[in-house]
Amino acid sequence: MANTSTKNRKFKLKPQHITWLKVLIHAISLLFVAILIIQTFNGGFGADPVKGIEHYTGKAALNTLFLTLLISPIARWGKQATLVKVRRVLGLYSFFWALLHLSSYVSLDLSFDWPLIGEEIIQRPYLAIGAISWIILLLLTLTSMQKIQRKLGAHWQQLHNWVYVALFLSPIHYLWSVKSGITEPVIYLIIACALLYWRKDKLKRWLSQLGNNINQKTSMPS
């Protein structure tokens, strides 16, 4: 009987498992950074290495963002509440790749020409929505520490719900940026929509609360 009860006991992630998962995330991320460096200096990005670097870092940011938002559903489905502790690490890597993506565009493509960068954002819608997504990820990264989380209280969750906006806009940014071969960005957009649908109830509550907050502020006497 004791053996049977032991077999039927469900596996639960322990703190050491979470630690090793984080180590694995760091190791894989460093591997992809190494691949980026090797590809850059060995001509692995083909005839247009700048575009190659931008696409590599952009897709890495998207992939990591998707993984970040998959953690909670997987944790609920597998009844592994402690799994959410790896979500912050993945989120930070998503911003890390987004930062590299922006940096490669600003430095390699536009040579830090700030007036030109402003014009490009105004004239090209895909850059505008990419900038919005990047700013959202920046704010989420800056407020990801527990100290700030406690300071913001209930407002912290309201702020971090904006990740859903970044999730939707990021693949659109990718789709609008390509001139041909839209299959891959469309797949990314479908995955993003699936992740949003998975959270439709939470998304509805957040949008309703956001609408109420806006109405309250606009109806306040000046």
Automatic annotation (TrEMBL):
Main location: membrane
Keywords: Cell membrane, Electron transport, Flavoprotein, FMN, Heme, Iron, Membrane, Metal-binding, Transmembrane, Transmembrane helix, Transport
A GO BP annotation: protein repair
Molecular function per GO: electron transfer activity; FMN binding; heme binding; metal ion binding; oxidoreductase activity, acting on diphenols and related substances as donors
Cofactor section: FMN; heme b
Assembly behavior: Heterodimer of a catalytic subunit (MsrP) and a heme-binding subunit (MsrQ).
Protein name per the record: Protein-methionine-sulfoxide reductase heme-binding subunit MsrQ
Regions crossing the membrane: 20-40, 60-77, 89-106, 126-147, 159-176, 182-198
Species annotation: Photobacterium leiognathi lrivu.4.1
Cofactor note: Binds 1 FMN per subunit. Binds 1 heme b (iron(II)-protoporphyrin IX) group per subunit.
Keyword match Metal-binding: yes
Function: Part of the MsrPQ system that repairs oxidized periplasmic proteins containing methionine sulfoxide residues (Met-O), using respiratory chain electrons. Thus protects these proteins from oxidative-stress damage caused by reactive species of oxygen and chlorine generated by the host defense mechanisms. MsrPQ is essential for the maintenance of envelope integrity under bleach stress, rescuing a wide series of structurally unrelated periplasmic proteins from methionine oxidation.
